[in-house]
Amino acid sequence: MTNDITRLSASDLGSALARKELSSVEATQAHLDRIAAVDGDLHAFLHVSTQEALATAADVDAKRAAGEELHPLAGVPIAVKDVVVTKGLPTTAGSKILENWVPPYDATLVERLKGAGLPILGKTNMDEFAMGSSTEHSAFGNTKNPWDLDRIPGGSGGGSAAAVAGFEAPLAIGTDTGGSIRQPGAVTGTVGVKPTYGGVSRYGLIAMASSLDQAGPVTRTVLDAALLHELIGGHDPHDSTSIDEPVPGVVAAARQGATGDLKGVRVGVVTELAGEGYQAGVSARFDESLEQLRALGAEIVEVSCPSFRYALDAYYLIMPAEASSNLAKFDGMRFGLRVEPAEGPVTAERVMGATRGAGFGDEVKRRVILGTYALSAGYYDAYYGSAQKVRTLIQRDFAAAFAKADVLVSPTAPTTAFKFGEKLDDPLAMYLNDVATIPANLAGVPGMSLPNGLSDDGLPVGFQILAPAKADDRMYRVGAALEAALESRWGGPLLNKAPELKTTELAR
Ligand code: GLN
């Protein structure tokens, strides 16, 4: 039974709870058991909050018994990326500099999860400060891909994606600055959504690059992503860039899409994000998905976004520039790690140097150096200024493309999951993973990755759908339609094809 519970989608689990076929305590315990059984291998979690999760579950069960009206996901457990602050639960952002730090408040999105009664199973592993595409930059060890334990689960949100793909959690929260929800989704066979910038509050996210960061859902189905998106989305006065408008009707759109009718929907294939540079199996699945969309009634058009080829370059100036400023608060004085110099005077500057030297990993140091250089007086216009101009050109390309197409599509990532160590010593090779996901962050538009099959190597492939800002509902409609068509071809969810994980004897 435990195994059956953990295989349910969040929406099915929510319905079963509403029908009182099982309790939230049982559902939560089933997931905690699964974590105990497989996380020794996967290492998706940095912290498991057993007591807190079971207490929330018991509370929801009591409310349900008392006949209270509850959210459709009430009682459905969730995992949260460790870059999101959680009151009373350790939050490290994958960094030694925050080891053992326990935040005094909840992020707005966590307040919303708690308000709706979703038990928080724990905090998931990630690349340090969300910098990476493989989770190998975590200060606390690698997370494994449930499809193949020798391979990366993507990054920076590899922990959230592996937890959902490994049936440790039906839902998770990720954050996406350049692809960290969508690329892990692609390589683990899960659904990942980066909402429109400003669609989900950033209050309580440990900032990497504030003009790019967005939190969003990591799930196994498009409908589950929509339910979670509606719950965590919406205006927050604590975030000055939060959109003060109702959340787009993403749940209704997902339900409409599932009926399989895409007549009149114009799907744009971005020339610059298709063709060369993708693994053969990734391109093959992409072409098949286009055929399926056409069969559902969509019109496929080709659009060109010439400035996209500079997106990666602009991102790797803007992101480090913002990160170098955001990370300045880790100074050994306010919170987290404090290291005093081994010898010599204990001045503020020397404590800062010793703390950052010991507390930040190589990738973080690399980006802080890059960012401070790009922002330095003599180079500001040449680097940061030019990158901002490219950003405007990318936004204009999107505007022109969305005049011709309702959604844009591409493969999510150039390859399937690579092996540990393969790209670790070559930062540029690592950065190239995000070539297709980064334009959306630079323009603030929403993006979804959805599993669309297996490559020749037997590993999952992702299909990316992009929509105009504040039209997130469009990608849910198209995503749900494609998902339904794919599942009827496969006879069920793609994750059913993943190898069974070895489970160790349960602690209980
Ligand atoms: N992989 C990208 C990077 O390293 C994106 C990270 C993210 O979205 N947080 O910057």
TrEMBL record:
NCBIfam families documented for this protein: gatA
Key word Ribosomal protein present: no
PROSITE patterns noted in UniProt: AMIDASES
Keyword annotations of the record: ATP-binding, Ligase, Nucleotide-binding, Protein biosynthesis
Function recorded in the entry: Allows the formation of correctly charged Gln-tRNA(Gln) through the transamidation of misacylated Glu-tRNA(Gln) in organisms which lack glutaminyl-tRNA synthetase. The reaction takes place in the presence of glutamine and ATP through an activated gamma-phospho-Glu-tRNA(Gln).
Superkingdom of the organism of origin: Bacteria
Subunit structure: Heterotrimer of A, B and C subunits.
Any GO CC annotation of this UniProt entry: glutamyl-tRNA(Gln) amidotransferase complex
Enzyme class: ligase
Enzyme active site: K81, S156, S180
Family note: Belongs to the amidase family. GatA subfamily.
GO molecular function: ATP binding; glutaminyl-tRNA synthase (glutamine-hydrolyzing) activity
BP GO annotations: translation
Annotated EC: 6.3.5.7
Catalytically driven reaction(s): L-glutamyl-tRNA(Gln) + L-glutamine + ATP + H2O = L-glutaminyl-tRNA(Gln) + L-glutamate + ADP + phosphate + H(+)
Annotated signal peptide: none
Residues of the Amidase domain: 26-474
Protein name per the record: Glutamyl-tRNA(Gln) amidotransferase subunit A
